Model the fold of this input.
Amino acid sequence: MELKEQKGAGLSLILGSLLMIVTMVLHPVGGDFNHLVNIFTMGKIAHGIAILSLPFVTYGFWGLTRRLKEEPFLSNVGFTIVLFGLIAAMLAAAINGFVLMDFVKSYKDASQDTIDSLQPFFVLIRKFNHAFDFVFIGGICLSILFWSLAIIKTKALNVWIGYFGAILSTLGIILFVSGYELVHLVEFRIFVFGNAAWILCAGIFLRRE
Done:
């Protein structure tokens, strides 16, 4: 892997992780129908930034995978897994930020009876989002674990980032399989901030090599 290409992948990871952090800072707290109407603009902006971060993160992960080519199984499987997680994140952001917001806006002048009749739809949207969030959480945890193990074995990057990622991802997997609700906003914010920190560090080390 050429140094210039590696630095580009590192920069892409840095940009993607910063956009993820901005997304979580701006992400509004959910609520009832009237609250969703009030946060229409901010909801679209936050989820738009989330979608924007995904191509940067994907390219950066591809560069990281190539940097860890001495462990092809761990690095390539990690990249394959994360693709599923990032696609799920894109679908969740598109549904929650655009489909739901546009749907709510189209009924903003509806009667209370009409709004009450729409509750099953909101429940369905929430179920879809939780399903995609679970895929994203599982995917990012497993992929960071695989890449961290590859870093520890190859020493292609600073080893401490490998141990940091292994601990972080293992903790996430334990919470995930134990049924801890990581899909609620506060817990999800903590999860994203933690993984964005690892992605940011990985990007910095890719550029420093």
